[in-house]
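Re: Re: C-alpha coordinate formats

Sure, here are both.
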Amino acid sequence: MLVANLIKNMLFSGDFSGYFSTFAPSAADEPEPVVLAEGPFERESRIEGEERGTVPMSVLVVREDAEEAESLAIALEAFLRGAEWEPFSESGPWRIVGLDTTAPAFRERDSSGRFVYEFTVEVTAVRAV
Protein backbone atom coordinates (compact mmCIF):
# COMPACT_ATOMS: atom_id res chain seq x y z
CA MET A 1 0.00 0.00 0.00
CA LEU A 2 0.99 3.57 -0.40
CA VAL A 3 -0.13 4.89 2.98
CA ALA A 4 3.29 4.20 4.56
CA ASN A 5 4.91 6.22 1.78
CA LEU A 6 2.59 9.16 2.52
CA ILE A 7 3.64 9.05 6.18
CA LYS A 8 7.30 8.77 5.14
CA ASN A 9 6.92 11.89 2.97
CA MET A 10 5.41 13.75 5.92
CA LEU A 11 8.42 12.84 8.05
CA PHE A 12 10.85 14.01 5.35
CA SER A 13 9.04 17.36 5.32
CA GLY A 14 9.81 17.69 9.04
CA ASP A 15 13.55 17.59 8.34
CA PHE A 16 13.97 14.14 9.82
CA SER A 17 16.93 12.58 8.11
CA GLY A 18 18.03 9.00 8.13
CA TYR A 19 16.88 5.79 6.60
CA PHE A 20 13.14 5.14 6.40
CA SER A 21 11.87 1.76 5.25
CA THR A 22 8.56 -0.05 4.87
CA PHE A 23 10.23 -3.32 5.93
CA ALA A 24 12.84 -4.23 8.54
CA PRO A 25 16.22 -4.23 6.77
CA SER A 26 19.18 -6.32 7.88
CA ALA A 27 21.41 -4.67 10.49
CA ALA A 28 24.30 -5.19 8.06
CA ASP A 29 22.48 -3.18 5.37
CA GLU A 30 21.10 -0.42 7.61
CA PRO A 31 22.12 -0.34 11.27
CA GLU A 32 19.70 2.40 12.42
CA PRO A 33 16.45 2.46 10.42
CA VAL A 34 13.02 3.88 11.10
CA VAL A 35 10.59 1.21 9.93
CA LEU A 36 7.03 2.07 8.89
CA ALA A 37 5.22 -1.27 9.06
CA GLU A 38 1.78 -0.90 7.53
CA GLY A 39 -1.08 -3.13 8.60
CA PRO A 40 -4.10 -4.12 6.51
CA PHE A 41 -6.83 -1.69 5.52
CA GLU A 42 -9.97 -2.32 7.56
CA ARG A 43 -13.09 -1.00 5.85
CA GLU A 44 -15.61 0.76 8.06
CA SER A 45 -17.99 2.04 5.40
CA ARG A 46 -18.51 1.97 1.67
CA ILE A 47 -20.32 4.26 -0.74
CA GLU A 48 -20.33 4.32 -4.50
CA GLY A 49 -16.80 4.83 -5.75
CA GLU A 50 -14.98 4.72 -2.42
CA GLU A 51 -14.59 3.01 0.90
CA ARG A 52 -13.45 4.49 4.20
CA GLY A 53 -11.54 2.74 6.94
CA THR A 54 -8.38 2.60 8.97
CA VAL A 55 -4.82 1.53 8.32
CA PRO A 56 -2.74 0.81 11.43
CA MET A 57 0.95 1.51 11.13
CA SER A 58 3.72 0.60 13.56
CA VAL A 59 6.66 2.98 13.58
CA LEU A 60 9.79 1.27 14.85
CA VAL A 61 12.81 3.40 15.71
CA VAL A 62 15.97 1.29 15.84
CA ARG A 63 19.16 2.73 17.34
CA GLU A 64 22.36 1.54 19.00
CA ASP A 65 21.79 4.00 21.86
CA ALA A 66 18.62 3.68 23.98
CA GLU A 67 18.32 7.41 24.71
CA GLU A 68 18.67 8.28 21.04
CA ALA A 69 16.01 5.72 20.07
CA GLU A 70 13.61 7.03 22.68
CA SER A 71 14.14 10.72 21.90
CA LEU A 72 13.76 10.18 18.15
CA ALA A 73 10.58 8.14 18.65
CA ILE A 74 9.15 10.92 20.83
CA ALA A 75 10.08 13.56 18.25
CA LEU A 76 8.61 11.57 15.32
CA GLU A 77 5.35 10.90 17.16
CA ALA A 78 5.00 14.54 18.24
CA PHE A 79 5.64 15.72 14.70
CA LEU A 80 3.05 13.37 13.19
CA ARG A 81 0.47 14.21 15.87
CA GLY A 82 0.73 17.92 15.10
CA ALA A 83 1.70 17.85 11.41
CA GLU A 84 -0.12 19.51 8.57
CA TRP A 85 -0.75 16.26 6.74
CA GLU A 86 -3.07 17.63 4.04
CA PRO A 87 -0.25 18.39 1.54
CA PHE A 88 0.77 14.72 1.73
CA SER A 89 -2.67 13.20 1.92
CA GLU A 90 -3.16 11.73 -1.57
CA SER A 91 -1.42 9.13 -3.67
CA GLY A 92 -2.98 6.71 -6.11
CA PRO A 93 -6.30 5.46 -4.79
CA TRP A 94 -5.51 6.56 -1.20
CA ARG A 95 -6.45 9.76 0.60
CA ILE A 96 -5.66 10.34 4.27
CA VAL A 97 -8.52 12.05 6.09
CA GLY A 98 -7.18 11.80 9.64
CA LEU A 99 -4.55 10.27 11.85
CA ASP A 100 -3.96 9.57 15.49
CA THR A 101 -0.90 8.32 17.36
CA THR A 102 -0.03 6.43 20.52
CA ALA A 103 2.78 7.34 22.89
CA PRO A 104 6.16 5.80 22.05
CA ALA A 105 7.35 2.96 24.26
CA PHE A 106 10.32 0.62 24.51
CA ARG A 107 9.60 -2.55 22.57
CA GLU A 108 12.74 -4.70 22.73
CA ARG A 109 16.40 -5.14 22.12
CA ASP A 110 16.60 -6.88 18.79
CA SER A 111 18.83 -9.82 17.89
CA SER A 112 21.63 -7.39 16.98
CA GLY A 113 21.48 -5.72 20.41
CA ARG A 114 19.91 -2.51 19.11
CA PHE A 115 17.18 -0.69 21.02
CA VAL A 116 13.73 -0.58 19.42
CA TYR A 117 11.09 1.96 20.38
CA GLU A 118 7.63 1.77 18.87
CA PHE A 119 4.49 3.84 18.46
CA THR A 120 1.37 3.34 16.38
CA VAL A 121 -0.18 5.65 13.83
CA GLU A 122 -3.85 4.95 13.19
CA VAL A 123 -4.56 6.40 9.75
CA THR A 124 -8.14 7.05 8.67
CA ALA A 125 -8.13 6.72 4.89
CA VAL A 126 -10.43 6.75 1.93
CA ARG A 127 -9.72 4.34 -0.91
CA ALA A 128 -11.15 4.91 -4.38
CA VAL A 129 -12.73 1.75 -5.78
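Second one below.
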Amino acid sequence: MAMPQRDNAIEEIKRLDALLEYAVMHGEKEEAERLREALKRITESF
Protein backbone atom coordinates (compact mmCIF):
# COMPACT_ATOMS: atom_id res chain seq x y z
CA MET A 1 0.00 0.00 0.00
CA ALA A 2 1.42 3.38 -0.99
CA MET A 3 2.15 5.90 1.74
CA PRO A 4 -0.54 8.47 0.80
CA GLN A 5 -3.13 5.71 0.47
CA ARG A 6 -2.08 4.26 3.84
CA ASP A 7 -2.21 7.71 5.46
CA ASN A 8 -5.72 8.26 4.10
CA ALA A 9 -6.81 4.88 5.45
CA ILE A 10 -5.39 5.70 8.88
CA GLU A 11 -7.25 9.02 8.94
CA GLU A 12 -10.48 7.28 7.91
CA ILE A 13 -10.02 4.71 10.69
CA LYS A 14 -9.51 7.50 13.23
CA ARG A 15 -12.64 9.30 12.00
CA LEU A 16 -14.78 6.17 12.06
CA ASP A 17 -13.48 5.23 15.51
CA ALA A 18 -14.47 8.62 16.91
CA LEU A 19 -17.92 8.35 15.34
CA LEU A 20 -18.29 4.83 16.71
CA GLU A 21 -17.40 5.99 20.21
CA TYR A 22 -19.99 8.77 19.96
CA ALA A 23 -22.67 6.38 18.69
CA VAL A 24 -22.00 3.89 21.50
CA MET A 25 -22.05 6.64 24.16
CA HIS A 26 -25.42 7.85 22.89
CA GLY A 27 -27.03 4.44 22.51
CA GLU A 28 -27.25 4.52 18.72
CA LYS A 29 -26.95 0.77 18.20
CA GLU A 30 -27.73 0.65 14.46
CA GLU A 31 -25.26 3.42 13.67
CA ALA A 32 -22.62 1.75 15.84
CA GLU A 33 -23.05 -1.52 13.95
CA ARG A 34 -22.80 0.29 10.60
CA LEU A 35 -19.59 1.97 11.72
CA ARG A 36 -18.13 -1.33 12.97
CA GLU A 37 -18.75 -2.85 9.55
CA ALA A 38 -17.07 0.12 7.84
CA LEU A 39 -14.05 -0.23 10.15
CA LYS A 40 -13.91 -3.95 9.45
CA ARG A 41 -13.85 -3.35 5.67
CA ILE A 42 -11.01 -0.85 5.95
CA THR A 43 -8.87 -2.86 8.33
CA GLU A 44 -9.27 -6.05 6.28
CA SER A 45 -7.82 -4.26 3.26
CA PHE A 46 -4.39 -4.03 4.94
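The radius of gyration is 12 Å. The mean pLDDT is 94.
- S.
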